[in-house]
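[Q] Does anyone have a clean structure-token version of this?
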Amino acid sequence: MTVATEPVPSGAVVVLLGPGGSVPAAAVSLIRAASAVYTTADAPPPVALAEEAQAGSVVLLTADLDDPAATALLAHDAPVVRPEPVYGATLLDAVAVMDRLRSPGGCPWDGEQTHESLRQYLVEECFELLEAIEDGDRAALREELGDVLLQVLFHARVAQESADTPFSIDDVAAELVAKLVGRHPHVFGGGDPAVRDARSQENRWEQLKQQEKKRESSVDGVAMGQPALALAAKLVQRTARAGLPPDLLPGSPLFAAAARAKLSGDDPEGLLRAEARQFAADVRAAEQVARSEGLDPAGMGESDWRRFWPR
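[A] Here you go.
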């Protein structure tokens, strides 16, 4: 993609439109700054268009670079802003591979799996993805996202074979699209006065979700099987939005600590995980120093631990 970052001699930029006439994101600022914006349908004759480009900044929107107006500007070395690549095509390959593994003649192990037998792998892959995010490891992040995607494809393929209300990966995707569009009326609809910023959108999302699912309680839909600290934080978040007075929250030390963290805008699960990971790193560092001095960490006493502790 060639993007005009500085004024060009001709003062013109040709923007190649994407599917459905979509404008490439890289061209938006150029269009806003242009003295004239034309489509091939309303552009002046090629010669006049080229002359106008010499006097000011002109942007031509076109779906065909062989159009006479585009050809005239390209002859004057006008740069082209092309559409962004369309992502998602390789997902079809992933679906096809999963189908092959699950079908007769495929992998015996894959063919035997059920939603129940796959549960442990879904949990494991999610935690491995979380670890990659915490480590800032981009290569691991890409790999672990693929492993989580595999679990989605696997469960959808198993569901497709079910005799009880079967559904496919397309049904999963279609429901997701409908949800995203329905809960973003300020983006896909005619606007939503209730959405002013990220925080108000978060509240609006919960309101729309409660309306869609016809929930009777502010805590309906909270996954009760999640880790206890994360569960406490989620319940506090939901009840705070519902206006529950803080003094009605449980007063046990652990719950109170989670509540204080969540109400102050922190993620108690993430904070505790970070603290635990740092503690593990400190333990390894102390043990490494001890070994470097010829001491077996398994035989260290309190004074040794304090002497080798990194902080």
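[Q] Thanks! Anything notable?
[A] Strands lie at 12-16, 36-39, 58-62, 80-81.
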